[in-house]
Each structure stands twice: as C-alpha cells, then as structure tokens.
Amino acid sequence: MSGPGGPRAAALPADARIVVDTLTTADAPACARLEAELFGDDDPWTASAFRAELHAGYPYLAARWVGHLGPEGTPDELVGYAGIAVLPAPAFSREPAEAEIHTIGVARHAQGRGLGRRLLGGLLRRADALGAVTFLEVRTDNTAALALYRSEGFEVVGTRRRYYASGADAYTMRRDVHDPR
C-alpha cells in the first residue's frame, strides 16, 4: 500500500529500539512527510513550518527507530515528533506560566506502542518544571488522543467549531500546574 510518503513504511517490530531525543532542523522534511500522512485533510505543517518552530526556540522532541532507514533513506527513522511553546509567567504576577502543545504525531506503523505518551510526557516535564498551565487543541473525533490527554490530567474547557481545514471541530483542553517532584 502506498501513502503520501511513498511505499508503506515497515511495521515497527515489538523489539524495535526507540530513542526520544531533540528534534533538529534536519528532521523537518521527515516531520512534514509524517504530517501529510497523519493530518492530510487538516492543513498539515510543511518542513518550513517545523523549521520556524525550532528557530523560534520551542522545545521539540523526536522519536527515532534506531538502526532502521526511513523513507528518505536516512538512518534512524523518525517515527514521532512533539513540540510545545512555553511562556513564562508575567513579571510580578501571581498567574502561572503557560504552555501550549503545538503538535504531536506518531507514524501509523508505530502507533499503539506508547510513543505518543512518551513524547507527551517529555513535553509535560518541561511545562511542569516551569509551573505552567498547559493547553492544547485536539479533534473532537480523535478518541485515542482524547483518552491519552485525559489520562495525563487534561480536561476539556471549550470547543472550537470548524477549527481544522477539513471543517472538523476541536476541543481546547487544559492541564493545571503539576508539581514536578
């Protein structure tokens, strides 16, 4: 079966070694390919959008299948990514810092193995270290993501009608400050 990135990627074996590390600008083309695969109807991000996020200094993580060539022939196939923007608390304010999860994606052939949870956990550790309230948007019909976010303490605080290019609605979700101890 073929998809936006060419031939279907190899299935992720149960013993695949996955490393979560820092996303780099060299990963931008692979991120854009995954975005097209996962979010093709919802205005997927381009490689330049990922590079812009990284140049802005936002923390982004990558999940890599170590020892496996990706569709572009690059070593250590990128099978997931996640990014967050963190805004410090205003000076002399009692308001907490705020964080917004910008994106999380896991290749279809790597889903169901806890990679989304690992990536989300890495982002939440950053937010928690700053004492930040964390927000995100998620499609209202994305039951797997909703279950993950709820299990990590997120609650629905609103609905954005026709938020995505496809016309799909999104929930805005919020997670209160967590003590990193």
What would your notes on this structure say?
With 181 residues, this protein is of the alpha+beta class. The protein has helices spanning 28-39, 47-55, 115-129, 143-151, and strands at residues 2-3, 6-7, 18-22, 60-65, 77-87, 97-106, 132-139, 155-160, 170-175. The strands form 2 sheets. Strands 3-4-5-6-7-9-8 form a 7-stranded mixed sheet, sandwiched between helices. Strands 1-2 form a two-stranded antiparallel ribbon. Helix 1 (28-39) crosses helix 2 (47-55). The radius of gyration is 16 Å and the shape is globular. The model is unreliable at 1-7 (pLDDT under 50).
Describe what is shown at a glance.
About 25% of the residues lie in helices and about 30% in strands. The chain is α+β, with helices and mostly antiparallel strands.
